[in-house]
Amino acid sequence: MKFEEALPVVTEAIKSENGFRFYQHGTSMLPMLRDGKDSVLIVSAEKIPPKKGEVILYRRVGGAFVLHRIIAERKDGFVTCGDNQTIPEKGVERGSILGVLGGFWRGDTFVAHDNAEYVSYVRKRIFSRKFRRFIVSIKQVLKKILRRS
Prior knowledge:
Elements: H1 3-15, E1 20-23, E2 39-43, E3 55-59, E4 65-74, E5 77-81, E6 89-92, E7 97-106, E8 109-112, H2 116-148
Antiparallel strand pairs: 1-2, 2-7, 3-4, 3-7, 4-5, 5-6, 7-8
């Protein structure tokens, strides 16, 4: 079953007291979330309000479902970015948010969104994003130079 087909059930589960747990796929949230290995708990935005640092599950205008971190809030919506990415996505509207990360499981260990070590990780990840973007730019330039040689 595709996520799209399960959306009504998923939406109800997110609104419930227990939230909705699933195994995420993709590499955009590395190193925090490993593709198909770690599962996430998504809860309602009423339970955990979306704000800088929180990971949200949202739907893009094109229909894709995305799990990314809020790195800023602007008048036109949230700015998000995967932990393993450097280019932000701007204009994520509140109405497109399905839920907020309540925590995740790494094996049998649950890490809550307000866990002290996790909060420290979030701060470092947001702070280092611009540096990581700069490093990626330098690597791309070096690759171009080496290809010409």
